[in-house]
Amino acid sequence: MKTAPPFTLKGKTILITGAGMGMGRLYALRAAREGASTVVLWDLNQKAADDVGAQVRALGARAVVQTVDLATLDSITATAQTLREEHGIDAPDVLVNNAGIVKGGPFWEHDSERHTQAIMAINAMAPMFVTAEFLPAMMKSGRAARILNIASAAGTLANPNMSVYAASKWAVIGWSDSLRLELERSGSPVLVSTFCPSYISTGMFAGVKGPLLTPLMTPDVAVDRAWRAMLNGTPLKLTPWTAKLAMGLRGVLPTRVWDVVAGNVFKVYNSMDHFTGRPAAQVVAPPQAGSAKE
């Protein structure tokens, strides 16, 4: 098996989507602590991203804060163009596609525009659009680089009350691992890692109950596992071990037998029964395309 050469953040540029809170914030701070020269923070919430930017600068790294609406291709394209023209960044060394949203409840309670379209746009399409903006330059540079795509264990197993979210993460996994193979076959030094965690206690999944032997992971633990996978060029990181077990059993058991095991033994099918998610936050208006702050 081919082993990737050692990779560090020292002196490198990293771009993180959804960088204003949760795991995105932790990725940004970790990059700064590990010597990144520039941390590009993409988020819809300008104030939250500015706060993280201040923390990044306090750690000695340059922070570029850009307000972007990841649900629209025009905003992504314009913001990337601003990053190239005004900040001189066309090929980040590390790209972390982290931003994501979720809606709990049966599929028929999803509003097609407010929920289904938004979830698929931000969770599934945005990673593709963002990567498409920077990947050609990353490949052309010839430098070792990393792409970390944040998927979910929900993308490996069907689960009631999260149908559209699960669909978006299935899409990310299929695209991300296919991209990995394409880059490997091309001989590119750009390596792709797909991170598939079970529930994480960021607030995004407030109210959920972890399946059997699967307590909610803390954000620090999840970020550490994703970060190590990214540095090592690990193709797919599914965590914790119970998520791997469930995926394996689902692959060998007949569907109806798996339904009994998942529902009655692992309690996977009941994990979203009391989902509340984050409290309603102040509505953030879409930004003017490409707005940025250093």
TrEMBL record:
PROSITE patterns: ADH_SHORT
Entry annotated with the keyword Oxidoreductase: yes
Domain of life: Bacteria
InterPro entries found in the cross-reference section: NAD(P)-bd_dom_sf, Sc_DH/Rdtase_CS, SDR_fam
GO molecular function: oxidoreductase activity, acting on the CH-OH group of donors, NAD or NADP as acceptor
Similarity remark: Belongs to the short-chain dehydrogenases/reductases (SDR) family.
Name listed for the protein in its UniProt record: Short-chain dehydrogenase
Organism whose genome encodes this protein: Arthrobacter alpinus
